[in-house]
Write a structure and sequence with these properties.
The chain has about 425 residues and is of the alpha/beta class. It has 14 helices and 17 strands. It has helices spanning about 1-15, 70, 75-90, 110-125, 135-150, 160-165, 180-190, 210-225, 240-250, 260-275, 290-295, 325-340, 345-365, 370-375; strands at about 40-45, 55-60, 90-95, 95-105, 130-135, 155, 170-175, 200-205, 225-230, 255-260, 280-285, 305-310, 380-385, 385-390, 395, 400-405, 415-420. The strands form four sheets. Strands 1, 2, 3, 4, 5, 6, 7 and 15 form an eight-stranded mixed beta sheet that branches. A four-stranded parallel beta sheet has the order 9-8-10-11, covered by helices on one side. A three-stranded antiparallel beta sheet has the order 12-16-17. The two termini are about 30 Å apart.
């Protein structure tokens, strides 16, 4: 089952985090202290840095500009904060000498080709010892490929595992959730709604992602005792979902599930609510992961009651392997550094990437590539996003919980945690509300 889901979903999840995910950085990130620029790259070392042998130079490629710029907001602040903690505690011992970590940033410009070019530039011009990257497959996959060609160790987070695991990697390692975990978080919502064994209508577009995801979702639903129903495909950007809604209504679907763009979801859900028919629960990936997404989906709390997967929250029960700070501490620091009013899932994942870096360097105690690779392969640590334990394909599967959006009277949003099967110690905050 796991192998089949991975194969069916690999293409679809490769673009899973485009579009609406770009909205997660709701406030423009302030420039990190100590940052500067150099042909699109910026260096930050948590204090004074030098180009001497006393530093470990770490490249970071992320989308600072372009369509995913908001998604990259807060990256330099969170990475810089975590590195500051390491440096202020004495750095990392390498070959018997304590060294400080220096971060050198490069902008992917929200483009896969530019991401590859940025990585190549950091490798050839900045002589980075190791690479970090995150923020969608359009960033992590080309950066990993560049590192593979150059023989540089690359550590990445937050892209769905199957979307990243498109090659047999030698030097690259990744931590993210997988399709089965995502669909399991949806099943938790279906079960909480009391529709076990019911009929699930699958929303899917006519593109490659839509075709791969209906196969993956249908197979998962059938394997778990649900009946999957295909109401027909839609063209992304469609303005009329009448026939699909009529089909869902005719079949009396208990739940609707899918992977949709925020704009497509908003149009569909508005028409669904006006149709006189509503499923008991709606679980949609991609469209409404962040507060900006549910605002963008439609006015007056259109997405109220929608359920989605949740990667990380400040209420997760984990601690930093660097300082033992709690997830709540990390969330509060992210808000302090960025001026934002809430900490998105990317806050925890950004911090965790530096945790992985620190533990790989510490365990290798060397910048020798073979030793770094072995240290990553052997890694088994608890971080703020859970245990990191890379498998034979060099990725670690991180757990998810299930959230439901609630539109408040003052026009703000709360994301309640309604199911925590994968992270039992992450407290639920409400019971599911049925449509």
């Amino acid at each position: 089952m796991k192998k089949r889901l991975a194969r069916v979903a690999a293409i679809g999840v490769a673009v899973l985090m485009m579009g609406s995910l770009a909205a997660c950085g709701q406030n423009s990130a302030a420039e990190g202290a100590g940052s500067g620029s150099d042909n699109g790259a910026a260096a930050q070392a948590g204090g004074e840095t030098s180009a001497s042998g006393d530093v470990i130079t770490v490249g970071v490629v992320y989308p600072k500009t372009g369509a995913l710029a908001a998604f990259g907001a807060g990256t330099e602040e969170m990475y810089g904060y975590a590195v500051d903690e390491i440096n202020q505690a004495g750095g990392v011992e390498v070959d018997g000498t304590a060294k400080q970590i220096q971060l050198v940033y490069a902008d992917s410009e929200s483009d896969a080709t530019k991401a590859s070019e940025a990585a190549n530039n950091l490798i050839s011009s900045k002589n980075v010892d190791i690479m970090l990257t995150a923020k969608t497959a359009d960033t992590t996959v080309p950066v990993a490929a560049a590192c593979e060609r150059a023989g540089v160790v690359c550590l990445s987070v937050d892209t769905p595992d199957e979307a990243w695991a498109t090659s047999d990697y030698q030097y690259s390692f990744h931590a993210g959730f997988n399709t089965e975990n995502e669909l399991s978080s949806f099943k938790d919502a279906w079960d909480a709604a009391g529709i076990t064994g019911g009929k699930v209508g699958v929303m899917h577009a006519t593109d490659t992602e839509g075709q791969t995801m209906i196969n993956a979702i249908s197979e998962f639903a059938e394997a778990n005792g649900y009946t999957a129903y295909d109401p027909g495909a839609y063209n992304s950007g469609a303005t009329d979902y009448t026939s699909i809604i009529d089909n869902l209504k005719k079949e009396a679907c208990d739940a609707v599930v899918g992977v949709m763009l925020t704009s497509d979801f908003g149009t569909f859900y508005s028409q669904l609510k006006s149709s006189g028919y509503m499923p008991k629960v709606t679980t949609v990936a991609k469209a409404t992961l962040f507060k900006e997404d549910v605002d963008a989906a439609g006015a007056d709390g259109l997405a109220d009651g929608l359920c989605s997967e949740v990667w990380w929250t400040p209420s997760h029960p984990y601690k930093s392997s660097i300082t033992e700070e709690t997830c709540e501490d990390i969330g509060n620091k992210w808000m302090e550094l960025t001026g934002a009013t809430y900490a998105p899932a990317t806050a925890g994942y950004d911090y965790a990437n530096v945790e992985i870096l620190y533990n790989v360097l510490k365990n290798a105690a060397s910048l020798d590539t073979d030793k770094l690779v072995q240290a990553a392969a052997d890694l088994s640590i608890d971080t703020v996003i859970g245990k990191i334990d890379f498998n034979d394909q060099h990725y670690s599967v991180q757990p998810l919980v299930t959230g439901q959006w609630k539109y408040n009277e003052d026009g703000t949003w709360t994301q309640d945690i309604i199911a925590n099967t994968q992270v039992p110690d992450c407290p639920t905050t409400a019971e599911i509300r049925l449509n």
